[in-house]
Write a structure and sequence with these properties.
The chain has about 210 residues and is an alpha+beta fold. It has one domain. About 15% of the residues lie in helices and about 35% in strands. It has three helices and ten strands. A hairpin with a 3-residue loop joins strand 1 and strand 2. The N and C termini lie close together (about 10 Å). Keywords: Disulfide bond. Pfam families: NIDO.
Length: about 210
């Protein structure tokens, strides 16, 4: 797994691009496409766009019930994070029972657009990707969270892609959310996804999608 400053993560192969595009196997050049067909490739994109990697921060944290830490404070923090993710999954994914034990939270914090002109831009985006894993059912759930989203596509002249994609053994699975490539993509915190709530946009069961 690799995390990129431009608002996405990949599994199986490295893929670095500042410029969002449709989620399909044609993202990959022929040589990488052949490798992906055999070994698998997946991308999760809460907001793939042209961020300025010199500004803002990208960080992650893993909460694992099997390794909760040594202090009571550590154990309580891990349990709280896992229980919170588990409640989200049960409430919004259609799964009635889940035994999530491992959660990874990736945060793109205060990200600013890469500006090609002298104009400065000071309204950042902050958003998250949450991965929740249930080892008893071999299920992985993804959640896209949007907090402070300050970009204005008319001023930043940016487009973005939101969704997920996987490719293996010539089997291709993808989902591109409707706001992708549109101005409304930078207002995801005001949009209700399949959770029915703003900010907490989408929860998907990736049982067969992650490589």
């Amino acid at each position: 797994m690799k995390i990129y400053a431009n608002g996405y993560v990949t599994f199986g192969l490295n893929f670095e691009s500042r410029y969002p595009d449709r989620l399909s196997k044609y993202l990959l050049v022929n040589t990488k496409r052949n490798i992906a067909q055999k070994k698998g490739f997946a991308m999760l994109a809460p907001l793939w766009t042209d961020n300025d990697a010199r500004k803002g921060k990208v960080y992650y944290h893993i909460y694992d019930l099997t390794q909760p830490g040594s202090t009571l404070t550590d154990k309580a923090r891990v349990k709280h994070a896992v229980d919170y993710a588990k409640d989200d999954v049960v409430e919004n994914s259609g799964v009635s029972v889940t035994d999530v034990t491992w959660v990874m939270v990736i945060t793109w914090s205060d990200m600013l657009p890469r500006m090609y002109y002298s104009t400065e831009y000071d309204l950042p985006n902050t958003f998250q990707l949450v991965l929740a894993y249930d080892p008893s059912r071999f299920q992985t759930f993804i959640m896209y969270h949007y907090m402070d989203m300050g970009w204005d596509s008319e001023r930043t002249l940016r487009r973005s892609m939101i969704g997920y994609f996987s490719y293996k053994y010539s089997q291709e699975e993808s989902l591109q959310l409707a706001p992708s490539m549109k101005q409304t993509a930078f207002r995801m915190h005001n949009r209700k996804g399949n959770t029915g709530r703003c900010n907490k946009l989408s929860i998907y069961n990736l049982y067969q999608h992650i490589c």
